[in-house]
Amino acid sequence: YPLSGAAKEEDSNRDLAQQYLEKYYNLEKDVKQFRRKDSNLIVKKIQGMQKFLGLEVTGKLDTDTLEVMRKPRCGVPDVGH
Amino acid sequence: FSSFPGMPKWRKTHLTYRIVNYTPDLPRDAVDSAIEKALKVWEEVTPLTFSRLYEGEADIMISFAVKEHGDFYSFDGPGQSLAHAYPPGPGLYGDIHFDDDEKWTEDASGTNLFLVAAHELGHSLGLFHSANTEALMYPLYNSFTELAQFRLSQDDVNGIQSLYGPPPASTEEPLVPTKSVPSGSEVPAKCDPASSFDAISTLRGEYLFFKDRYFWRRSHWNPEPEFHLISAFWPSLPSYLDAAYEVNSRDTVFIFKGNEFWAIRGNEVQAGYPRGIHTLGFPSTIRKIDAAVSDKEKKKTYFFAEDKYWRFDENSQSMEQGFPRLIADDFPGVEPKVDAVLQAFGFFYFFSGSSQFEFDPNARMVTHILKSNSWLHC
């Protein structure tokens, strides 16, 4: 069935976050783990990013976090690998 | 601040860079000066110096590209990832790539090239991202940075100095640099009784006394020597030089730093430089020279390193056999190490620390000992 607006937006936020964490926070590229919203690993990665970038550490894709992820930045990762 | 895993850093203090291509967003000279300004940001707080290459492989290759551009990190179109750079090392390492899907500008109306270049150079020198939101190495682009008053944060300075230490002139605590004119303590004092020089050369009848990133210029018509930044005349030359001399017959001054040397004619750095000093015939054990002077009558150039010296024949363009010889054997009374040498009025003037030895090559003896800065009317 066609996704409702809210659900569609939630999906796109999740995609944004997944790409961001894969690109800059060394998140393994594994689609499934992002589908399980409460995946502990994802929460930890989001918390790590929020801490590094000086955001409130909620572990959730809140508005501030999504806004920061949309900002222009350097392409070098924040977590070494 | 943080450094890359394994703490990669350059094992030399003089680095080369090359601007491989240009963005259509800006005039070329605007790109050139943005990069030069970004290099100066890091030069000011470290012993590092940079010179520009126009061909071949430089330590830091700077280029503009879009989307997939030959490494594993494709760019993503306008926004988000603006540029990336690689930590110190050979080949791709040290290089900087700018995303040309951004709108590069000299001001803050688009993505300011100077600001991003200064950040990416931090990576090329070995800095990773900083969690300090005030730091240049913070990963997010801050379009509200006051460009006119740009300065590195203490976090940036601590980071880069943890890799390379402070600039050689300062032995105090790491400085947070100001973009304004350097404070008195950084500018060498002309008549400081303890003053010494890094290098001295003639240039078309004038005398140039190099010190740190500056030089005094003494001409016949102006008794008061002028004082300039080296970069004001030769932007691509390093500072804290080792040696300099003029070959009158070629109207060329040769400048030495570390294991490289440059040729300048007037205020033009000649193409194809820097070259390695070993191309002149020095043994590989020599990593730098201390001083040099060219005898215009005899067309011989003397190179001094520690307690020895070499002689180079300007006609055959080759190092003469039977060298090195001990300085003490052929210039009795001259004490190594020699900082700089000048030939004038038939004498050789050897500068060592704050002392200057006037040597008569015919009498083969030191005829006067003076203060090094006596040439500057002190």
User: Distance N terminus to C terminus of chain A?
Assistant: 40 Å
What's the overall average pLDDT of chain A, rounded?
A: 82
Which percent band covers the strand fraction of chain B?
25-35%
Structural class estimated from helices and strands of chain B: alpha+beta
SSE arrangement of chain A, N to C: HHHH
What is the molecular shape of chain B?
elongated
Task: Tally the helices of chain A.
Answer: 4
Multimer state? heterodimer
Topology of chain B as a string of helices (H) and strands (E): EHEEEEEEHHEEEEHEEEEEEEEEEHEEEE
Taken as a percent bin, the fraction of beta residues of chain A is under 5%
Terminal residue distance of chain B: 45 Å
Summarize model confidence as the mean pLDDT of chain B: 89
Task: Tell me the structural class of chain A.
Answer: mainly alpha
Outline the low-pLDDT stretches of chain B: 170-185
Helix content of chain A: 55-70%
The profile of the biggest β sheet of chain B is:
5 strands, mixed
How many individual helices of chain B? 5
What is the C-alpha radius of gyration of chain B, as a whole number of Å?
Answer: 23 Å
Largest interface: A-B, 18 and 27 residues
